[in-house]
Amino acid sequence: MRDAGGFTRRSLLLGAAALTASACDSSRPHAGFLGAMERFNLRFQRALFDPARLAPELPAEAATPPGAFPQYYISSTIPVAPAGWALQVGGMVARPQVLTLEELRLMPRTEYRIRHHCVEGWSAVASWHGVAVRELARRVGADPRAGYVEFRSFDEGYWSSWDAPSALHPQTILAYGMNGEPLIPAHGAPLRLYSGVKLGYKMVKYLTAVNFLPEPSGGYWEDRGYEWFAGV
Amino acid sequence: MPDFTHRRPQPWPIRLLHWANVPFLVIMAGSGLRILAAYPMMGPQGQPYAAYPFQGTPPPEWMQLGQWLAGGRHWHFAFAWLFVINGLAYGLYLALSGEWRRRLFLPRRDARNALGTLAYYLRLRRQPPPQELYNGLQRMAYTGTLLLALVVVLTGLVLYKPVQLGWLAALFGGYDPARLIHLGTLVLLALFTVGHVIMVALHPRSLGEMVTGGRPHA
Fold first, then answer.
1. What is this model's ipTM?
2. A222: closest chain B residue by CA
3. Residue A53 lies inside a defined structural domain of this protein
């Protein structure tokens, strides 16, 4: 009996090790045990998310020194807006629209200085101004049943999709300015997404389209293995 | 007060939860260092902490788990919950079984014994002070690891949700201070582990007890 017990225990340990190896595949983090835990963490983050909780606004002294706020795009050079750029807004909306930068600037303006949290672990601080996505949703008559919002760009097709509560958070904006100045191409001009409630890779730059959708549509980094919800 | 004279030194829940920490800590440390490697600096962008001695130096590759940042993060946020559950189960067991009485460091009871044991190790004293299951120094070290585990979990939650858990972030001075404390706690836990393994090697009976449960010391 003793031997049988030892044999069982050994098989159990070997089995557990093999299971861990197959269930925790770093190159396929959406699958197996890691994927199951990601789905658990998705529910945890949704439950924790408070649509009324704001990221704290910071004083000017907290701002990242000039030039130190990282720039990021997936194109090999800084993406340049196509001539005649305008934002397309569609999906589950009553009034699909194409909005120029001028039209967006005429909408209610939101401005704040908050901390940016990158998936790599660094933080940085800048002030941003633009129009809240919730204002845009109101303008186009977004269907309340659209649980997701997709943001597309002209940066080699970079995109992301968000849960509607995060997208409609008062600090989630389509930013056309940074640190009191018009947005520059290195930071996503003419228009980029900014927010206090998501990691940096969710904040799509070089926007071309905003679509209100019934289902999430993944994202550039999300489809490559990064977490989809990515709240902070 | 429960009667410990007929109780095994290491009841099975203690042994189970103790050994579960070995894979959990290895996985959490390895995947955490993978995340650190993505930005091996401390302090916000453009304002690195002057006192941090390893600015820009990633941890050695062999210490990192998860192949790439997304893999490391998935490992980290998956096993963090198992580590937390393990810790909660341990705390609950200590409280309900009364085991906390012979394991936790109670300053008024154990401080003198801890000093006496330290004096013995430093050869300032010939005989160690009398002890039960653990001496005061052991109780201090083991209770210290529980506090470290608590801090590593709380700062981890700050890094995971710095906005939704803004009150917790404020408790640790903000996101970047919490990140430094999170790493510092890992270093202290690693130092404890080295000391722990050395002490076990010097007192092999304790290893047997943590495997089999041992016999009552009385």
1. 0.92
2. B70
3. no
In CATH terms, the superfamily for domain B12-43+50-212 is Transmembrane di-heme cytochromes, Chain C (1.20.950.20)
pLDDT tens, A81-122?
999 999 999 999 999 999 999 999 999 999 999 999 999 999
Residue B216 has pLDDT above 90, yes or no: no
Within an 8 Å CB–CB cutoff, is residue A117 touching chain B?
yes
Annotate chain A with DSSP letters as a single string.
Answer: -HHHHHHHHHHHHHHHHHHHHHH--TTSTTSHHHHHHHHHHHHHHHHH--TTPPPPP--GGGSPPTT-S----SSSS---PPTT--EEEEESBSS-EEE-HHHHHTSPPEEEEEEEE-TTS-EEEEEEEEEEHHHHHHHHTB-TT--EEEEEESSTT-EEEEEHHHHTSTT-EEEEEETTEEPPGGGTTT-EEE-SSB-GGGS--SEEEEEEESS---BTTTTTTS-SS-B-
Q: Measured between CB atoms, does A11 come within 8 Å of chain B?
A: no
Nearest CB to B41 within list A45, A117, A122:
A122
User: Residue B80's closest chain A neighbor by CA?
Assistant: A37
- Partner-chain residue, chosen from B71, B165, B176, that has the shortest CB–CB distance to A225: B71
Closest A-chain CA to B175:
A123
Q: What is the pTM (predicted TM-score) of this model? A: 0.93
- Using the beta-carbon criterion (under 8 Å), do B45 and A70 form an inter-chain contact? yes
Pick B75's closest partner by Cβ from A34, A41, A124. Answer: A34
Q: Given CB atoms, is A39 within the 8 Å cutoff of chain B? A: no
Number of domains in chain A: 2
Mean pLDDT of chain B: 96
